[in-house]
């Protein structure tokens, strides 16, 4: 398994709403087209209305690379910048968990 946790901070409320729309469009494509993407979730942060946290879990690094190569993901990566004040990315190495059926 390969994962990411990403914290995005939007520039303002208008940007946050537009970012959420971009996320919704992209997420629909991810759900429909990426069997190697095990979990792709987006969360608002309580008390911090401009922040979003993405939790992404892929079957392996190859599935992540496939995800990154998709046209709709490339569009997301290009368009998101106009809405963001900052981005923080942590790469995750899966150890154990509930809800994911994997042999490790």
Automatic annotation (TrEMBL):
Limits of the ABM domain: 1-74
Keywords assigned by UniProt, alphabetized: Monooxygenase, Oxidoreductase
Cross-referenced InterPro entries: ABM_dom, Dimeric_a/b-barrel
GO molecular function: monooxygenase activity
Name assigned to this protein: Antibiotic biosynthesis monooxygenase
